[in-house]
Each structure stands twice: as structure tokens, then as C-alpha cells.
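This part of the workshop introduces the protein records we will be handling. As an example, a complete record with its sequence and its C-alpha cells follows.
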Amino acid sequence: MVPSFNKDIGLPDIQKCNSRVDIFEENDSTDISFRPTLVPGTQIPYPGFPSLNVLPLVSIELIPVGLNIFGMPSKYATTMLTLKPMGTLPAANDLADHFLGKSLFINWPMMHESRVVAVSDAVCEVRKVKKKKKVRWFTPPETERWETESTTMAEQYANGARIPGSGGVNIGDIQIRFKVVPLQGMKTNPQDGSSKKLFGKEEADIPLQMALWEAPAPDPRFIERGPMTIKDRFPPKCNIILTKGKYRGCMGSVIGVVDGEKLGVKVKVVPPEPPFGLAIARSVQESYISTADAANVLKMPPGIFSRITGSVFFDPGRYDLGLNLTYKTDLCVLGYTRRKKGNRYGKNEKKQANNVWKTGDSVLVVGSRANSSSDGEKGGREKIVFEYTPKAVRLVAAYRQKFPQLFAALCKNPRERFYEAKQVFGPNGEAMLPKVRNWLNNIETAKIPRMPSTTEAMPLTAVAAVERAADVRLTVIDKQGQTKELNIRVPPAALYKEGSTAATDVLLATDNNVNPAPELGDRIANLCANGVPFGARGTVVSIHDQASGCVEVVMDNEFIGGSTLQGSCSNFRGKLCVWAHLLKISAADSKGVVDQMIPIGTGKTALENILECNNKEVFHSSAKQESSGNRIGQSNGKIIGGTDSIKEQSNISPASVRSNTPLKSPSRQRSINTSKVTPNSQNAGGRGGKQGTWREARGPDERGVGFKGAGRAAKSGLDTWRRIIASGGPERATAQGTITKENGVLPSPSASAGLKAILGVQEPGTMSSMAKENNLQPSMNATDGLKA
């Protein structure tokens, strides 16, 4: 074990250290000089490293060609490499039989293997369709287009294609072109352990001059392997995780081979995962409105609203005085703006989304379509429309109230690219620009990281709720000792061994997950994500664009490689991972069950309050078992009777019932704040003090409106409320909880039971989780808890 050098910042001891430190004495000899020679035994070219000499070069010269790699031509001279010219080549129809289905090495100077799928010249294109040769003869316009594309391709190899790394090679005239699919990596068969090369689906267009028949330096990592024995694949005592069956996501270790075809495995059984992540993701959501509705609320043109939430430039000094809640069509601010959700995939959206996550190449080469940026592709992009939350509308309103001259100038000249400070703010306009910029630097969104508009993410309150839910569940599992070990027999295809995926191996989202597309709130277990402990569990809180194939997860426990996800979660808890490297452990029907249980967007505050209350119940060491007719006060661990407790609180002044934070409530439902109430704090929160806002009153019951049995003789509602509390009050006053000296308001029995049903928490002395599954219906309790 290596002790932590700083536990104060959260770095734990390293229990299993796989590194060491060797101290070498420095050589102080003065008779040794540097000689620029290669070390004996150096191999050039070397596998995985670039080399210019693998293609036949005839000359190298320094000439000005206007190299364009950043969008504009260079004014300086460029080193130009000229390839050996090629003679007249046979037609594509004659060469096709020698090339189709064969491997070529492309992507000079970093040579990469690919497979030829088509051969073309100015006359025809030849492919293999269902193992049969198929020739498509070009029409005159197609021939002209092929020749134009070949000329453009030769110019881009020489002058650059506005991409770093392109240009500087004179390849001559193009007579033959190949359509190839690049090698993605090695794919391992889960049944027998054999590995084969996996080629992509995105075609690259390559001239014959830039391809090689053989690898200049064969890479041993890309050699196909035959079947392996079970013992070689899973040696005894190796760590594994189950990917199928009722113990999916559970970790274990291999005991040995059983019956010749199966493995004996010792599994650490974890209780079934409740879908609390999906429940939180569904219930805790922000409300968004369109640009037109937001502008209508503020009585301003929609174009002005869109512009002020983006960038607005002022001279002199090129000050950006926009709120920057959106940046072009690329970035937005979580909790304030988002890209308008639409049906991107057509009628069958779910099926099409799954197909998108199934496909897509991770390795692209020179000539791939995804690397090209033609004007036609740019013009075909879909229009991006943003939506806004009430917080964004309030921020714009505050900005307008603070600097009305700026908004007046925008309304007067909405299409100006740059505004003059003196024309907007008067003679002292130049002095006003730093003041406005300083105000913008101190608003709540100034330091919030911008995220891609294609990213789908949970609100920050939902991420915090996910963390609290995971903490509560782990604490209860540890206290009740629900984790046990079992010896089971498992087929090799249902196991994943730690460290079995190399850097050159390919894992697809469909290999271990039935549903390839991730969902916000999905529970996962780590397989091979970089920097995350093997088998660690977490929850998906952000989903990035399908082209990236990445998600952001918040893990249940802290780990060394964790981060805050730019302030979204606690430190050492978050990680950006490739979705295919994670195992989804949420049940297949969890999403449907949660959708039926919880209406969208409801329970946002209720769930937070329930989690806070349950957290206090779990960690409070002096709590005692409830007795009939009484409740347990968590302040001193004593029993507080229903009526007596109300009388005990009758002396508390209303100022002490204030909360440090405003109480939020879900749609058409009241929730009880769990802030602390101290009987000795009568004067702590006067009007305008530091205690915050008033607590919301409890809503009337279904039998009528207003206070029952109180009369209307009192001078104010406050006096009437005090009289009800002092006299014991109606039954409704104690239906949702009892106020105690320390904890304010305890959760209702249904809320507490609902949360415990979702998290798998049991009261002391109750039946086991397995017995509950057989005798109770957790979904009903979960519904009550989330809707309380």
C-alpha cells in the first residue's frame, strides 16, 4: 500500500500500486558529446509510425504553391515532394478482378490498412455485389464529373485541402481511383475468443498513386487469431463481470472450468437495481419555451431576443455585450438554453436512433467523406432553433432593466454588425462599455461552461439528486449487508474479463447492450472505460452527439480519475466515457415502467426533499423505531406524541419557520421544506433579514377551501394559524409530518416508503428484499413517494 500524500483534497491511499520509482545517479562525465545518429537496431519504418520514404519519391524542392491548410493560402514557400510518374494504366474493368476485396495500405505517411470495395476510371465504376462483379458505365455528365473530381483531388494533394496535414505532394495525373473502407480494429468473438479484422462502412476515395500493396512495416497487433481454449481466455482468479442473465452487472472471479464448456464463477450478488436514475431524469426537468414566446413575455421582437442571448459587438475595443447563452448553432448553456428537440430520425424515431448508435466508423482516413467539407454539405445542414427556460427570460429582463439604452439601440438598428458606443450610450459611451462588460462578468451564467447544442443533459438539480440517491442506496446496502457471494456456472459468452480489450480492439454498442442507444438516467457498470475502476457503477447524466459515441456518467463512488464534469457533480465522481465501453444494467422495461409511474416534469422538488429526509433517516444514529400513535424526533432521539409535539411547537415564532432557500413545488402540488427549525431563533429572520423567503402555506384538503373550525374572527391569517397550532389543529395539520426542533418537517410515511422502494431501502425489522419482491408491489410505493 502507498499512503496518500494529501488526504485533505480527497486522494485516498493506493491499495494496489502497479508502479515503482528507481533513482539513477546522473552521469557527470565531460568527455561525452551528442552525436546525431540512430541507436543501433532502430527499425525504420516502424509499425504505427509515419515514414515519407514508403512511396517512390523522385524530387524534393522548396517552392511557393499557396499551401492552404487553415482556410487561406500561405504566402511562404512549401516543401514539395514529387512522386515517380506512372505510365498508361489498364482500364478499371480490367484491373477490378485484381483489386476488389483485397487489402491496400493508404493514408500516407501513416500507412493504414483498408479493403477495396470499388475501382473506377473516367469510363466506369466496378463493384462486387453479392460476390458478383457489377459494372456501372458512366454517362457523359458522370465522366465529366469524375475528371473534375480527379483534378480537384490532385490539386488538394499538392496545395492542401484546408485540413492540417494535407498538401505538399505532387502526385501527377489520376487515371485510377479506389473506393476503400478503412480497418477499424480487431473484433473478438465472445463464443470462442477468435479475433478478426473489422473494416468500416464509410468509404474513402483514394488515387492509385497513394496506395501500397504491402505494409512497409507490418503491425503485429493487427494479426488475426484463431479460437482459444476457455482456460486460456479465463484463467483462474481473474476478475470478471457478468454481461447476461439475472446477475448482469455483478462482479466476480473465475474458479475454474466446469463440464468443459462452462466456467465456475464466484459472484458478488448485488440487489436488483431500482430505476431511480430514470425516475429522476423523467421527473426533474426544466421547462423550455420558444423564442417567440420568450420575446412575447418581454414585449420585444424575437430577433432582438435571439441576438441579445448570443453575441453583440461594440466598438471601440470590440466588446462582446451579448449574454452568450448561445454561440452560433454550436453551443448553449445548460439550464438556460437548448437546441429544440425534434424528430431527427423520421417516423420510427426509437428504431432509427438505435441504428445511429449501432453504426459509424471511429477511424477515418484521408479521402473519407466525413473529413470533406464541401459547400454542398454545409448548405444541407438542418436549421438549428433554440429554446429558453424562464431563468433565461428573467436574465434578459434584468439586463434590459439595467441597461435600457443598449436594447433601444438594438431595436432601432437590429441588423448592425458592430455598434458604436457613443451612438448607444451617449458622449460617455466608451466609459460605459467596461461597466456593462463587468456586469456581464458577474451574472450567474458568466462562469457556467457552454456545452454542445447536440448534447442532451440532465439539469444540475437532477445530477445532485442522482448523487444523493446513489449515496443513500450504498449506505443502506453496506449497513444491512445485502451483498453476498454465490458460486454459479456461466457460459464464457456471458462474461467479460478485466483488461481483455486492447487499444486496437473494437467494442460495439450492440455487443453487450440490447438497446444500443443510451437514455438519461441509465444505470451502467464499467467494462473498459479509461480511468474508471473495473465494474464500478454509475448513472448516465449527459449524452453527446451520436458521431462521438460518448456519454457523461456520475459514478456511485469517488475514484482517482474522476472529475466534476465542469462543475456538474462532486469532485472525483464524473467521467466522459465511450458508450460502447459501458454495460447498461438498467432493466429492459425500466423506461416504460418509469414512464407509467411518473408524469414528465413532476416531482422535481418533491424528489429532492424526499431524498434529503431519507438521508437524515439513514445516517441519524439516535433514531428509534416508531410506536403506534407517536413519531420519533430526530433532534434528541425522544418520542414526540402527535398532539404533544404540536403543542411543543406552538411557542415558535413564525420568523423561525423560514427557510434558507425558497421552497419550490411541483405542478399543482405542495411539498414540505426540510429546513431546520430552531425554537430559540425568534428574532433570527425578520423581514428583510438573511433567512430567505417565507415558507409556503400547506394547501387545503379535498373537503373544502380555507381553515376548518377556525372561524373568521381573527384579525389576520397569521393569528388564525397560531390559534390552530396552539389548539392541536385539525387532522390535516399533521397529515404530512411533524415539526421537530432540529429537522423542521419530517417526510410523510408514503413519501418515505416511496423513496425506500425506489432505492431498495428497508426499515429495520422488515422482511428481506427478496420477500418484498414476492409479496409487495414496489411500483405503487415508488409512485406515492415521487408524487408526495
Observations:
- The mean pLDDT is 76.
- The chain has 21 helices and 33 strands.
- The first helix runs from residue 92 to 99.
- The CA atoms of residues 47 and 218 lie 6 Å apart.
